[in-house]
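#struct-pred
JK: can someone run the complex with glycine? inputs below
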Amino acid sequence: MSLPLNAAVIEPLKGAAPPDQPNRQMLARALDQALAAIDRNLAHFGDDFPAPSSIDGVYPAIGNIEWTNGFWTGMLWLAYEATGAQRYRDAAERHVTSFHQRQAQKINVNHHDLGFLYSLSCVAAYKLTGSAVAAEAAMGAAELLLERYQERAGIIQAWGDLNDPEQSGRMIIDCNLNLPLLYWASGHSGDLRFRQAADRHIEAAARHIVRPDGSTFHTFFFDTATGQPRHGKTHQGFSDDSCWARGQAWGISGFPLVFRHNGDTRLLDLSKVLANYYLNRLPDDGICYWDLIFTSGAEERDSSAAAIAACGLLELGRSLPLLDPLRGDYERAALRTVRQLSEHYTDTDGTPGGGLLKHAVYHKPHRVGIDESCIWGDYFYLEALVRLSRTWEPYW
Ligand code: GLY
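RT: done, structure tokens with the ligand placed:
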């Protein structure tokens, strides 16, 4: 047996999720409501995309220029899978053409979010339709992501130019979700460089981003010349030593998604550590504050982190052995989260351009998207509904 990747201690879970679980009718209602919002927004945005976060509840329309564009395309693929309706596929296929141009022309691709962009648009398209154009675009994006790999440190640099001294050697927990693009690229091309980089990056994340108490740093710096770990630092959280809720959710979901690709069960152990830390810090309704340092009071919730965590708990649950004592707790916690989101956090106004989920936080320290809809929250809420309603193969 291999040694654990991190000696972080798992907290015992404080309480079991109460038995107010969603049933089939509730799920069907929530899915219908989500699809109605997607139809409204398809008419509203045309071939444009929703911005990362809403302003006064409505997403501005943008071109294919942000790190978040893949979430809207991913929602169209989920809607297509859930209904079989051609209109979603037609729109998503037009997006694939746009994503192909984006990587070929290198339009705002100087960052690690290529996985978010291309797994949900082009890898999804390839898996669902076999599109050669989608596969070519996803391979192009994977090549760009691999260029960011720092061999000595064994990490993919998150942001900025590789020579930018402020960004040099910075990895971030969110990148866990970008790694599946690299595994897909190795599988598709037979080129093992992608997989090897992803294996080293996830190991570095496991060893250095996870703290001994099971919380996570948002970002962590390495010395790229020597490969030595330096220090953790937040970017979107409350402080360097607090635990940004969405970062923790990226960890809970990303470690088991990478397990799908590399089979390293130590990643599941780590996801459990993160999950228990997260679940033990939820307020009464089970929807986290934007930073887990807050457990009560007037700070904003981050419904988008809750939706990501719900998908992560479902992924973790399905990956654990049937007899794992925590498996049922994770599935119940995910179900409860989805129920709370659908009953108390969905946008029922029917405004064109509005989100599926209200009450998310994009970037509190920069005062962007506070108590607004965030497009990734909408994506993961829909992914959770689809995961609960049917047998589903992730695009990740
Ligand atoms: N990956 C950036 C964010 O979660 O805001």
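RT: quick notes.
The domain at 24-389 is CATH 1.50.10.10 (Glycosyltransferase).
The longest helix spans residues 24-45.
JK: thanks, will look after standup
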